[in-house]
Amino acid sequence: MKKMTALVLTAVMAFMMTACGSGNAGESAENGQTGAADSVTAESETTKDLLDEILERGYIIVGTEGTYSPNSYHDENDNLVGFDVEVAAAVAKYMGVEVRYVEMEWASIFAALDAGQIDIVINEVGYTEERAEKYDFSKPYAFVQGGILVRGDNTEINSFEDLDGKIAANESTSTWGATAQEYGATLDPVNAMAQSISEVLNGRADCTLNYVTAFADYMKENPDADVKIAAYSDPEPSSYIPVAKGNDRLVEAINDALDQAAANGELSEISMKYFGIDVTSEE
């Protein structure tokens, strides 16, 4: 009898444990606490598209330097201004969101992008094969030409070929210094652009080479300076917007916003405001 009673009790307890287990599993699945459905939900949340996040939060976070005139700097009232700052605002507007800027040193800007502290970088970022291994890029929104700056009364330099036998004031390790030498110029080594222009004005150098945007900014701040740009190189893409890889929809949205800003003439107006020339077109 004792053995029979034990067997019955064991069977009853096994049945009750099975029933309770089935009930808990059903309740958990219904409440979304466990099971395959919850795993799918969790996976979809972790792989959420960055564009969706930006649209839901209502603003895009842009990394920029804030110390790089005329692209990103503070004016006399300490307001963040500049060509790239306004380009960022235009991109955000056409995406239908606000813009929030995070200012940081250039050395930290890509680390912040990697860490997800910012969504994009807008700070005259150039395209390189090395960067392309980690980031996707928007279409270029600026095309910068190189130029030769001379004194206002100089009539001997009208092209890069005219540099042969002339003296160019440029940094000895810069690409522009190397370019001047490639065209036959002798280098007058300097440490900064302001010094190179000073060398041209005082006659110790015939010219200096640089991006025309840098010259335009100098000429805007020094309208009485007796200098002119004597020759231009072909424009090259100079500014892109990098995005962490895997965000193709965000890149497409940025490109669409840039297209709208260009079609409405806003990019051109921003360029004229800060550079005095239009660098937003390849032509």
Taking the sheet with the most strands, its summary is: 3 strands, parallel
Poorly predicted sequence stretches spanning 5 or more consecutive residues: 1-46
Percent strand = 15-25%
Query: What is the CATH topology of the largest domain?
Result: D-Maltodextrin-Binding Protein, domain 2
Number of strands: 14
By DSSP (H or I, 4+ residues per run), the number of helices equals 11
Query: Can you say what the CATH homologous superfamily of the largest domain is?
Result: Periplasmic binding protein-like II
Helix content: 40-55%
Structural class: alpha/beta
**What value does the average pLDDT take?**
84
Describe it.
The chain has helices at residues 2-31, 36-46, 50-57, 83-95, 106-114, 129-132, 175-182, 193-201, 212-221, 248-263, 266-275; strands spanning 59-64, 73-74, 80-81, 98-103, 120-121, 135-137, 142-144, 146-151, 167-170, 186-189, 208-211, 227-232, 236-239, 242-244. The protein is an alpha/beta fold and 283 residues long. It folds into three domains: 8-45, no CATH class; 50-142 and 237-275, 3-Layer(aba) Sandwich (D-Maltodextrin-Binding Protein, domain 2), CATH 3.40.190.10; 146-233, Periplasmic binding protein-like II (D-Maltodextrin-Binding Protein, domain 2, 3-Layer(aba) Sandwich). Strands 4-1-5 form a three-stranded parallel beta sheet. A hairpin with a 5-residue loop joins strand 2 (73-74) and strand 3 (80-81). Helix 4 (83-95) packs across helix 10 and helix 4 (83-95) packs antiparallel against helix 11 (266-275).
